[in-house]
Amino acid sequence: MALPPLPATPRASIAIICFNYGRYLGECLDSCLAQTVPADEIVVVNDGSTDDTAEVLGTYAARHPQVRAIHQPNGGICAATRTALAACSGDVVLLLDADDTMAPQRIEKVLDALRRRVDGHLPGWVHNAMQRFSATQPHLGLAPYYPGGVAPEGWLAAQTLQAASCPVLALTSGLAFRREVLDAIGPLDSDRLMYQDLQLCTAAALLSPCVHVAEPLTRYRVHGASATKGSMVSAAQVHATRERAVRFDTWLRAQIERSRPGASVLWRPLDDQGGHLWLRFLERWLSGKGKDLGLLLRVLRHPDTRSGPRQYRLYYYGSLLLPRPLFVSYSQLIFGAGPLKKVLRKLLRRS
User: Fold this and answer.
1) 128 forms bridges with which residues in the sheet?
2) Can you tell me which residues the record assigns to a coiled coil (predicted)?
């Protein structure tokens, strides 16, 4: 889709989702209020929190007119994101999780990036680097990691279709979109299984070029569930991931058909995707049915695996060499956070 230039003084919205993160919400909102280019509105959806989120949010909304509080029953991250995006009125919408914070120049740098042409076109969305940190370790390295340190930008539709996966690996707090792109994407699938960042990045990559900001404009907090996000250490977790893949496949095909009838055939079937073959192998193995070595060899020889990130190749090959209990620990090391992971990142020359 072709986009016109941004207005001279575009309206900027920040969309924040909060579920039981009242202990972090004040720090998050303080960072939003300290921007060098002020946000026109900060929309915070309280997704049925049972902690002090409502009280913290009420205090900020009373003091700062740009903070808009929306309270709704708990519906999950995608339902809350859907509400937040619909409520934002800005020309540009920056996403932020309630446990993360923004660098003071984030809005300024995002707006500058959206004015920079890539592949001869104005980009419709931005992804930026994030500084990972925890309560005990202020510098856990940058995320996401891209081989060679070169992040994808420009028109990514062909690459996304070829790989059946968007090459942009940014999480929610590293994403920003022009309003036109969000309108073209339409409502997210709000099922609890789904990930909002996966839906947004993949759909946006098929619609508009993107631009990358290498400077870490977000501080991404590693704690609790986020410390092991991505690790799949039980058959139940893998089964849920497979269900998510099937649902996402259905949603994305509908998105493609809506924008270009007949084009969904360009999206590869799940059984022709290396990642889905891996999930089939892993679910069988972790449920105690043994290693299906034939299926594993299909995964290891698959073009998606050979061209994919080194981190995932190491992960897959670990299943070939390790017994199941050791592989579970290995998975937590590869995808988790902690001192050993920090050493591993240095060995792999990742900042």
Assistant:
1) 213
2) none
Q: Report which secondary-structure segment, H or E, holds 150.
A: none
User: At 55, which amino acid appears?
Assistant: E
Query: How many other C-beta atoms can be found within 10 angstroms of the C-beta atom of residue 346?
Result: 11
Contacts of 280 (CB under 8 A, 6+ apart): 242, 295
DSSP character for 5? P
- DSSP bridge pairs for 95: 15
Output the six-digit token pair for 270.
């799940």
**Residue 5 pLDDT exceeds 50:** yes
Q: Which amino acid is at 325?
A: P
Answer for the pair 266, 164: CB distance below 8 angstroms, yes or no.
Answer: no
Among 319, 324, 318, 322, residue whose Cα is nearest residue 344: 318
- The CA-to-CA distance between both ends of the chain, in Å, stands at 35
DSSP string, 180-212: HHHHHH-SPP--TT--HHHHHHHHHHTTS-EEE
CATH superfamily name and code, 12-227: Spore Coat Polysaccharide Biosynthesis Protein SpsA; Chain A (3.90.550.10)
Question: Per 3-state DSSP, what percentage of the chain is helix, strand, and coil (rounded to 5)?
Answer: 50, 15, 35
With cut-offs at 50, 70 and 90, classify the pLDDT of residue 231.
low
Does residue 333 have a pLDDT over 50?
Answer: yes
CA atoms within 13 A on the CB side of 269: 2
List, for residues 67-122, the tens digit of each pLDDT value.
999 999 999 999 999 999 999 999 999 999 999 999 999 999 999 999 999 989 99
Residue 319 phi, psi dihedral angles, 5° rounding? -70, -25
Both tokens of residue 33?
């209020």
Q: What is the pTM of this model?
A: 0.89
- Alpha-carbon Rg for the chain, nearest whole angstrom, is 20
User: Residue 220 and residue 173: Cα distance in Å, rounded?
Assistant: 7
> Could you give phi then psi for residue 260, rounded to 5 degrees?
-150, 90
3-state DSSP call for residue 131? strand
**Residue 19, SS3 per DSSP:** coil
What residue ranges do the domains of the chain occupy?
12-227, 235-335
User: Among 315, 350, 304, which residue's Cα sits nearest to residue 149?
Assistant: 350
